[in-house]
Amino acid sequence: MARLAQPPRSAFEDPEDQKAYQAVIARRMAIGMGEDGDSELGAPDMGEYFGALLNSPRMCAIAARMGNFVRTAGERPGSYAHWERELVDQVLSADWKTNVIQGLHIPDGVAAGVRLEAVEALRYGHEEDLNDDERLLVGYIRQVVTGTVDHETFAAMRERLGARGVVEYTGFILWLQWIIRMMQVLDVDNPPDEKIDGIIAGIKDGSVVLPDFRQRLG
Questions:
Q1: 3-class state of residue 80 by DSSP
Q2: How many CB atoms sit inside 10 A of residue 130's CB?
Q3: DSSP structure string for 123-175
Q4: pLDDT beyond 90 at 39
Q5: Does the predicted model carry a pTM greater than 0.90?
Q6: Long-range contacts of 84-90 (CB under 8 A, 24+ apart)
Q7: For residue 37, is pLDDT > 80?
């Protein structure tokens, strides 16, 4: 259970807080990421992460809008593809040895076009199985995280994504760091390795049905 529970709507008297609280509810419910109304909260249950963030409704509303922006970049020309975004989840999860986003983002990632072989290569430490495209992206992601982006890698990424795309992709890498670290601070559910490994095995044998990841883009 997260360290902070979702506050009831009535906890906020400021109209701007009330407006932000409702905006989060509306956006999350629209993409199927909330439970039905909770009488004690006076609002739908937003789950561990967004429920905890709602202790600051205005910051939570910013997070929700940013989430919408980065998730929908793959629907716009001149930015990164959905699979390129989902690959960032796999790199950070593997490098930071955390599963906080993996229960959702391994199925979503594979559905969006991330090769399952790339997921396994990163998770299980055999990166020789990455292809050239993946190596470029993985290298750039790690350089962004460590503040060591070199001119050659940046030039390759700019050629790949364009000026707007490389700015947006870099922004997403940095944003995902914020999300994961915030989840860790709030102590949201971090599934055991066995559960995540089971998801991977289920995708391989067909027992895990891949979702329509676009349902959660809004």
A1: coil
A2: 19
A3: HHT-GGG--HHHHHHHHHHHHHHHT---HHHHHHHHHHHHHHHHHHHHHHHHH
A4: no
A5: yes
A6: 84/137, 84/169, 85/112, 85/169, 85/172, 86/112, 86/113, 86/114, 87/114, 87/118, 87/134, 87/137, 87/138, 87/141, 88/141, 88/172, 88/173, 88/176, 89/176, 90/114, 90/118, 90/119, 90/122, 90/123
A7: no
